[in-house]
Amino acid sequence: MASHRRPKQPSRARVTVLTATAAAAVALTSQTAQADPKPSKTDVKAKVDKLYEEAEKATEKLNGAKEQQGKLQKQVDNLQDKVARGQDELNDLRDDLGSVASAQYRSGGMDPALQLFLSSDPDDYLDKASALDQIGTKQTEAINEIQGKQRALAQQRKEAQEKLGDLADTREVLGSKKREVQTKLGDAQKLLNSLTAQERAALKAEEAREAEKAKKAADRAADTAEKAASTNGGDDRASRDTDRADVSESKPSSGRASSAYAAAQSVLGKPYIYGTSGPNSFDCSGLTSWAFAQANISIPRTSQAQTGAGARINSQSDLQVGDLVFFYSDLHHVGFYAGNGQVLHAPRTGTVVRYESIDNMPYQFGVRVG
């Protein structure tokens, strides 16, 4: 007789374990399939460079907000000083008028119109023009002067309050831009940390080679200019004609530009730190504004504002050593032209003041500070 015994069912625990194992395997396979491959050194560098560029844009806006804050603070301080001085003058005028009233009282009683003026609501008196006829000329002049002083004080207080509001708005922008810069720099550092130590070292070595190459090119431009300066009109006309193109761009654009450029050269190797303008660290426009200050020339703090510091030079071929050169469509980067197609500038976070090829960034135009 055939057996009708039911086949043994797997235990619930066994089913649970098998199911969990299968799910884990599927999840692991899915994650492995979906996981992005580790970015290459080149990809990381491109992303980091983009973040540094965005950080520098924010840095220039931060610098602009700082400059605006300084101007507003001076305006507020001046207005508050005027208000304080005006209040003192108003008090003196009221004291003088009070003395006149006291004298009148001692001599036979205070004039009713004057008593009205010195009441708790003196402005009400000014609406009663007919009362002026009852006061002497000297008192009338004093009252008119007080009235004018009151109006001036009210206007100055209003202006000071408006400037304080502008100052608060500027400080808010300042904080926002500072946070934006810090975020961009933090993101860039995270990307760099994703590279191996060897990859990071390779990037630094590559940058060092490029900087040294740019320095040599700038040195050749300086040597050409020095050679031209030492020439006293020799007979070798052909040699002079051959070198003329190189010599013209190697000459400093002016004595003051030469002094500013020399000041920038004196801080080669100083670190880039956003929002700083020397003498121990710089950002791009901090370097250029500091260098011209050493030549006793005041130019604006931000790169965008520095575009108006002199005559515009559109063609690279017309640039001379010491000209300011501007990059990117929004003009958020500036440096000095160093001759021979090189720039002396403070590039970005993680670098130092150094030479670099002008072709490494999208050139817009130059400015010759006369």
Describe the structure.
The chain is an alpha+beta fold. 62% of the residues lie in helices and 8% in strands. The chain contains ten helices and six strands. The protein has helices at 12-34, 41-106, 112-117, 122-126, 137-193, 197-230, 237-250, 255-265, 284-294, 303-306; strands at residues 311-313, 324-327, 333-339, 342-345, 354-357, 363-368. A six-stranded antiparallel β-sheet has the order 1-6-2-3-4-5. β4 (342-345) and β5 form a beta hairpin. The longest helix has 66 residues, at 41-106. It is elongated and about 90 Å long. The termini are far apart. Residues 234-245 have low confidence and may be disordered.
Helix/strand layout:
Blueprint: H1 12-34, H2 41-106, H3 112-117, H4 122-126, H5 137-193, H6 197-230, H7 237-250, H8 255-265, H9 284-294, H10 303-306, E1 311-313, E2 324-327, E3 333-339, E4 342-345, E5 354-357, E6 363-368
Antiparallel strand pairs: 1-6, 2-3, 2-6, 3-4, 4-5
Give structural attributes.
alpha+beta, 10 helices, 6 strands, 6-stranded antiparallel beta sheet, 370 residues, 8% strand, single chain, elongated
| Radius of gyration from the alpha-carbon trace, in angstroms | 37 Å
Mean pLDDT: 81
| First-to-last CA distance | 117 Å
Number of strands: 6
Low-confidence stretches: 234-245
Strand order of the largest sheet: 1-6-2-3-4-5
Number of helices: 10
- The fraction of residues assigned to DSSP E strands is 5-15%
Q: Give the assembly state of these chains.
A: single chain
Helical content (DSSP H or I, runs of 4+): 55-70%
What's the overall geometry?
A: elongated
- What is the helix/strand order? HHHHHHHHHHEEEEEE
Give the class from helix and strand content and strand pairing: alpha+beta
Major beta-sheet overview: 6 strands, antiparallel
